[in-house]
Design a protein that fits this description.
Layout (H helix, E strand, L loop, with lengths): L17 E2 L8 H4 L4 H8 L4 E2 L3 E4 L11 H9 L4 E8 L5 E3 L6 H4 L10 H4 L20 H6 L6 E6 L6 H10 L7 E5 L2 H10 L4 E6 L2 E2 L7 E2 L2 H11 L3 E5 L7 H9 L5 E4 L4 H9 L4 E4 L2 H9 L2
Parallel strand pairs: 3-4, 3-13, 4-6, 6-7, 7-8, 8-11, 11-12, 12-13
Antiparallel strand pairs: 1-2, 4-5, 9-10
Helix pairs in contact: 9-10
Length: 301
């Protein structure tokens, strides 16, 4: 996901963020296909309250985005979850990279969808952030899953269409990470539909940014009503929204809830006051480039 406008964060007041974290003991191939309702009934587990600070592309303020170095650093910095961007390589491997090509982070332009994993691995994904990160490579989804500790969560943003879902499902089913520790997120409605059809035990959030019809008009789209309609239409479990405090207030959230939207998270928030605002409204996740800073700032208040 991209930062919201020119600033990555917005104003407000902090309360505790609610997060559902369930660790399952069933064999993963059995659990991934069970509906969430049946899963909760089988486990008999209630939702737990916890602060949910999600590291945007890992600890991306301090380490090269979407690399294992950034994800490991996020855990060291106290993140509750990590968020990464995923695409299909030319040979059908789910890889972690935001852009459609490698130019911005590697200095060499290769279209990800046309390039096999072995060639993508030859590029350096870390040097642009600092010599200490030289040699960082493009991780696969399987490798990212392998560094998610028990009790933590992974937000998987799908940057493609539904074609990624079959391989995504295979990677998840082979992983030791529990279904309840994964949230699938996508801007594309059809991709959300495919995720819920193939992986009903995994939560999925539809993503949306906001656009003002004309500068200063205060007419922001989509409206809360339109968001609720989209969430219902694609079968999503919630929505991930660009963190605009001038749009998302108590009335906006109430309209979402009346429309059947069960939960929401926001991106990208790098200031404590902004995290306070959205968490106070009931956000289940606060996505940030600066997990250590945000954690320290919030716990000191």
């Amino acid at each position: 996901m991209q930062s919201a406008g020119d600033s990555k964060c917005y104003n407000g007041g902090f309360t505790e963020v609610v997060s559902l974290m369930i660790v399952l003991s069933f064999p993963s191939r059995l659990v991934w296909g069970i509906s969430l309702t049946a899963l909760f009934a089988i486990q008999g587990i209630a939702a737990a309250e916890d602060s949910m600070i999600t590291a945007h592309r890992g600890a991306s303020d301090d380490a090269p985005e979407n690399t294992l170095a950034a994800f490991r650093l996020a855990w060291q910095q106290g993140a509750d979850a990590i968020e990464g961007d995923f695409r299909l390589s030319g040979d059908g491997v789910v890889v972690c990279i935001h852009d459609a090509d490698t130019a911005r982070t590697c200095g060499v332009k290769l279209p990800v969808a046309d390039t096999p994993l072995a060639r993508l691995r030859q590029l350096d994904y870390g040097r642009w952030k600092g010599e200490g990160f030289a040699g960082e490579t493009c991780p696969t989804l399987a490798e990212v899953l392998a560094v998610v500790p028990t009790g933590k969560r992974l937000y998987i943003e799908l940057k493609t269409g539904p074609e990624i879902v079959p391989q995504l499902a295979r990677d998840l089913e082979r992983s030791a990470v529990a279904p309840a520790a994964v949230v699938l997120i996508a801007f594309d409605e059809a991709t959300v539909v495919a995720c819920k059809e193939r992986l009903p035990a995994v939560k999925a959030h539809w993503l949306t940014a906001f656009k003002e019809s004309s500068k200063g008009s205060g007419d922001w789209r989509p409206t809360a009503k339109a968001i609720a309609e989209t969430v219902h239409r694609c079968g999503a479990d919630g929505v991930g929204m660009q963190a605009r405090a001038e749009v998302i207030d108590a009335a906006f959230v109430e309209t979402l809830r009346r429309g059947g939207v069960g939960e929401f998270h926001v991106w990208t928030v790098d200031r404590p006051g902004d995290a306070q605002h959205f968490a106070g409204l009931g956000a289940v996740g606060i996505t940030t480039n600066r997990p250590a800073f945000l954690r320290t700032a919030l716990t000191s208040q």
